[in-house]
Write a structure and sequence with these properties.
binds S-adenosylmethionine, Rossmann fold, alpha/beta, 10 helices
Amino acid sequence: MHRIKTFGISKPDESEKFRKLFDKHISGFNGWLERDEAFFLYELSKMVEDELAIVEIGSYEGKSTVALSAGSKENVITHAIDPHTGDISEVSAGIKVDTYRNFVSNLLASGVSNKVVVKRMYSQDAAKEYKGPPIGLLFIDGWHTTDAVITDIDSWLPYLDPHGIVVFDDWGDAEVWAGISDRLNNLPKLLGAVGKDLAFTNSTKIQQSPIGVFAKRTYTRLRILNTLRAIKMTLRRKLI
Ligand SMILES: C[S@@+](CC[C@H](N)C(=O)[O-])C[C@H]1O[C@@H](n2cnc3c(N)ncnc32)[C@H](O)[C@@H]1O
């Protein structure tokens, strides 16, 4: 008799802790990070070992900072880097914003301040003075221009632990993708994607965990959707 082997290929259940954190805190902050993405970061941050750090480029008012720092182990520090002068959409519209005050108060309200080192500066300057520890999880969500993405990768990849994870926000954005593709050979293996986030890691432990499978499955779904979209566009062009 053949045994059919089944793998847990569904998204892991949200824990009570995550549900409370998201509904009570993260969902109320200004920003763009969606529930699935926050859960993905929260679950990935759990896997960062004690002697490593988390680095976040682009905190805004702290949605992702809180997801990353609340999920991680007690001794893991999240370095949250942002000049706090607003998102590119606000800056290019000439809107002056200072996200620092809300950011700090959101960290306090969520009870994660003691696990976050706030660096009010640009990513490339913070990288020059970074003294370690090696990075277990690098989240890149700064300016979404090709040059900025390349600068962020080049500045921080040298500090990545061999089993570290790199996550890009909004990888489907043409400019972001151009930056990622340009440095694809330097990045670890593709792990998968969820929502607007794309993850890379060489850690087999993570690749084999439910979150890795969840990410891979979502990535496959996204690729199928993209292919269907491309076919539809070609057909439409032929019909016109
Ligand atoms: C889309 S927002 C980040 C959203 C945030 N991750 C969240 O969960 O809500 C982009 C942020 O990147 C910051 N930023 C832009 N250039 C940067 C750079 N070179 N280094 C660090 N942060 C940068 C901006 O100030 C802005 O707050």
